């Protein structure tokens, strides 16, 4: 007995191509995203997609025949059961059995989902609606558990599903109602689908554009990264890129599902800090800022400009003239550190670090901008010297395993023994203690407190408690594997409001520096130990040929904790475990920038005039350093300078002489031999010293010191020039222009009618003009409504129109022809006909032609073209 068919092969083929193919594409996309976050799926998304595809295609073909769903479904589940029992007998070992069972479960679920979808596409009219809702719900669940909540991730996650939902519902109904015997069936389907897809894309794009603010609002409220971070796809970064392309540390730090890194060289530093042997470099972390506040709503660590005992020195090097200095000794007092401290200097050479950024080991108190040698100006934009009040007990080596290096092991133990002397915080300022031991109080943070107390139950001193916390992060699980792992993509908890720190500490146990530092901070504060998070760059000693020189790359941007010890001050501790999977930044090539020249004269002031031909600049000097001595300047003086060999620089790199404008703030530096034998007496001031200088005074370097407004103006110009082409904006404008012309095109029949109608209704005293206007408007009106004059005389056309509409158009036409071709005046009756004809005529037309037909006719531009192009018999 032959099994009957429900669908022809033509309809089954349409279902496979138009329904199954897009469904498989979407399934592969969803499986790819899910595999990135769930390790038990083992990233076999192609294989899993094949399971789903097989079930879908088989079901569409199978249910094209008259098979019942319940019977075949029971047979399918029976086959699953038999296969599962057979696999159980074939597998060897407990681990193999578990692995095979998991894989079979994945297969059966995906194959069944494909089978169910195939049946729905083939048999059920309303299945596509439930299927679309199901996919949207599943996507919401997956996104909430796996993706960082950003505008870009939300759009990329839901846009494909929404497009698919609209498409599958429309196409399924189109196939269901198709006439298989219709000629040109394939062309009919293609036209319908092309129009629908184009309309759907425009509508979806418009919807996403309209609701962009709402997406950004969701990102701000629930997400883990800053909105509009387009360059890194919505990922968090420890640094931010400025409009001029430079990098800066951020004023906040979020714990997100993913971290963005890059390998660009940011700056190079020469640090004058060594172990007691005077040969072995002792690197220190370079600090940019401190995060002392925590926003529980967004789970963000933030700066606080008003934190107690402010010991953060953060000048803007770009605003300090070359060789002049800025010093703040108050920060030294605020460290409350007197034991084992010394002054250390560092020279920092910026590559892409922002000109106004100041970074140095803790605690810095001194800044002196330095020139960059001519041969290094292409690589390094600017430089400065920093001086710091540092502890002998601080070292970046603390985070590295010193096993095998006796010197480092000894240093580490000596550090701990020294810090164990600090046992009590009695006598410290109450506000200081309350501020640096504050933590939120609720059930989630109470879990962190309980963990901290459990880990440190045997520790007596603050440093031993710190060591116990560090040991927890470096401990092993029952299988000998690290309990905590470093990951740039740790994921986030399922609910946006859930504590990311708790998820890190008790469930996921993988993260990057923000997670380790944040968890350590709250455990320390819960134990009453003053602590804060420091942000900057970790230091790696790679330069064996040039001891004391360190190269800092963007992926070394870092966060760690600092603990306060009475008498010893703030000490660096880093609990972030090493990243075993990421390669280090490339080894530094080239020679460090050595500054061998001694500046004999440094003048700070304002440019008065610039002669680019003679290479002369006249400046109004406000301050001067001469042979490293500060020259008294009771009044400003003019100085003529020879700049024929001078290099022109600014904080963003090299410049040109023409960049110096009258009124520009500049600093002139001279290394000229001609100034070596000129000495300033004790009685000399700026005016008397300038008299002794050569005229013009030789200058080797001029640095342009931009004001904030000048800097903003330059950045705006650079942004306008370097801004990449915005394809999305271009597409919007293009679609807008096309849409406008389409709207104008299809509305042109109505616009023409409005013009002719208004002229016909005008109260003109001239009967000839009025009759002409009425005749033209009437003819156009009839033509647009499909009553077209084809090879007919005016009387013939008017009689045909009257016959169809029951109007008196023929009578009016006769009067119009008389006016047009005769000089005989109109009778009173004829004049009355001209005056009273138009409005009743329009009413008769409207009564005979429905509104729907009139509306569609006025969208028909072919009738309009016909009116203006067809030849007529007068």
UniProtKB/TrEMBL annotation:
Pfam families (UniProt xref): Transglut_core
Compositional bias (Polar residues): 244-253, 577-595
Region annotated Disordered, chain positions: 222-253, 576-595
Transglutaminase-like domain location: 505-577
Transmembrane segments: 12-32, 44-62, 69-87, 99-119, 126-143, 149-172, 193-211, 727-753
Keywords: Membrane, Transmembrane, Transmembrane helix
Alphabetical list of SMART domains matching this protein: TGc
Nucleotide-binding listed as a keyword: no
Composition skew (Basic and acidic residues), residue ranges: 233-243
Protein name as it appears in the record: Transglutaminase-like domain-containing protein
């Amino acid at each position: 007995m032959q099994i009957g068919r429900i669908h022809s092969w033509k309809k089954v083929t349409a279902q496979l191509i138009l329904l199954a193919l897009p469904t498989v594409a979407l399934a592969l996309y969803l499986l790819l995203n899910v595999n990135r976050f769930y390790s038990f799926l083992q990233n076999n998304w192609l294989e899993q997609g094949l399971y789903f595809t097989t079930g879908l295609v088989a079901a569409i073909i199978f249910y094209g025949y008259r098979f019942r769903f319940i019977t075949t479904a029971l047979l399918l589940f029976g086959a699953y059961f038999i296969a599962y029992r057979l696999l159980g007998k074939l597998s060897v070992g407990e681990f193999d059995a578990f692995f095979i069972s998991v894989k079979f479960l994945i297969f059966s679920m995906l194959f069944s989902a494909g089978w169910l979808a195939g049946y729905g596409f083939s048999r059920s009219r309303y299945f596509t609606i439930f299927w679309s809702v199901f996919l949207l719900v599943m996507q919401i669940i997956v996104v909430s558990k796996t993706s960082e909540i950003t505008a870009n991730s939300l759009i990329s996650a839901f846009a494909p599903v929404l497009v698919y939902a609209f498409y599958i519902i429309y196409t399924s109904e189109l196939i269901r109602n198709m006439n298989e015997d219709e000629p040109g069936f394939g062309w009919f389907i293609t036209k319908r689908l092309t129009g629908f897809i184009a309309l759907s894309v425009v509508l979806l794009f418009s919807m996403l554009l309209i609701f962009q603010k709402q997406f950004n609002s969701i990102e701000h409220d629930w997400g883990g990264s800053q909105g509009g971070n387009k360059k890194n796809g919505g990922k968090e970064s420890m640094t931010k890129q400025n409009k001029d392309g430079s990098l800066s540390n951020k004023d906040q730090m979020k714990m997100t599902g993913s971290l963005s890194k890059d390998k660009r060289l940011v700056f190079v530093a020469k640090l004058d800090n060594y172990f007691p042997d005077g040969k072995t470099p002792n690197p220190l972390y370079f600090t940019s800022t401190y995060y002392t506040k925590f926003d529980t709503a967004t789970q963000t660590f933030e700066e606080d400009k008003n934190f107690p005992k402010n010991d953060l020195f953060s000048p803007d090097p770009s605003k300090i003239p070359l060789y002049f200095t800025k010093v703040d000794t108050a920060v030294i007092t605020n460290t409350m550190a007197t034991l084992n401290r010394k002054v250390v200097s560092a020279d920092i050479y910026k590559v892409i670090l922002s000109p106004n950024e100041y970074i140095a080991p803790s605690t810095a108190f001194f800044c002196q901008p330095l020139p960059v040698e001519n041969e290094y100006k292409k690589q390094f934009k600017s430089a400065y010297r920093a001086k710091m009040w540092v502890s002998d007990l601080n070292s970046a080596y603390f985070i590295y395993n010193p096993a095998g290096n006796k010197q480092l092991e000894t240093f580490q133990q000596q550090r701990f023994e020294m810090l164990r002397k600090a046992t009590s915080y009695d006598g410290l300022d109450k506000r200081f203690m309350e501020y640096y031991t504050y933590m939120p109080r609720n059930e989630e943070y109470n879990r962190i407190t309980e963990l901290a107390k459990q880990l440190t139950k045997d520790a007596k001193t603050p440093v031993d408690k710190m060591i116990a916390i560090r040991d927890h992060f470096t401990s092993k699980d029952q299988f000998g594997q690290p309990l905590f792992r470093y990951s740039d993509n740790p994921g986030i908890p399922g609910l946006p409001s859930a504590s990311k720190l708790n998820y890190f500490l008790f469930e996921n146990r993988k993260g990057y520096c923000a997670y380790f530092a944040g968890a350590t901070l709250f455990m320390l504060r819960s134990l009453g130990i003053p602590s804060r998070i420091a942000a900057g760059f970790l230091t790696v000693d790679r330069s064996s040929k040039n001891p004391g020189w360190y190269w800092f790359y963007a992926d070394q941007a870092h966060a760690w904790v600092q603990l306060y010890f009475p008498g010893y001050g703030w000490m660096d501790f880093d609990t972030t475990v090493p990243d075993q999977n990421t390669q280090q930044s490339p080894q530094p090539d080239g020679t460090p920038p050595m500054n061998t020249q001694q500046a004999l004269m440094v003048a700070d002031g304002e440019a008065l005039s610039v002669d680019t031909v003679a290479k002369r600049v006249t400046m109004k000097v406000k301050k001067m350093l001469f042979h490293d001595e500060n020259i008294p300047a009771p009044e400003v003086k003019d100085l003529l300078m020879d700049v024929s060999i001078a290099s022109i620089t600014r904080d963003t790199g090299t410049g040109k002489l023409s960049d110096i404008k009258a009124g520009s703030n500049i600093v002139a530096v001279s290394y000229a031999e001609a100034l070596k034998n000129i000495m300033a007496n004790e009685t000399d001031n700026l005016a008397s010293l300038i008299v002794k200088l050569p005229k013009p005074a030789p200058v080797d370097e001029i640095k342009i010191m931009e004001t904030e407004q000048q800097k903003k103006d330059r950045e705006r110009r650079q942004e306008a020039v370097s801004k990449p082409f915005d394809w999305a904006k271009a597409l919007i404008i293009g679609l807008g222009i096309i849409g406008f012309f389409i709207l104008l095109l299809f509305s042109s029949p109505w616009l023409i009618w409005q013009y002719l109608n208004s002229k016909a209704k005008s109260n003109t005293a001239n009967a000839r003009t009025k009759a002409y206007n009425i005749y033209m408007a009437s003819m156009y009106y009839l033509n647009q409504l499909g009553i077209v004059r084809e090879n007919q005389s005016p009387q013939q056309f008017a009689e045909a129109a009257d016959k169809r509409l029951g109007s008196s158009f023929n009578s009016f036409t006769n009067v119009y022809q008389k006016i047009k071709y005769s000089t005989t005046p109109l009778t009173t009756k004829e004049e009355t006909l001209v005056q009273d004809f138009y409005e009743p005529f329009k009413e008769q037309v409207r009564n005979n032609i429905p509104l729907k037909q009139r509306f569609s006719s006025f969208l028909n531009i072919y009738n309009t073209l016909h009116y203006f192009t067809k030849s007529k018999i007068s």
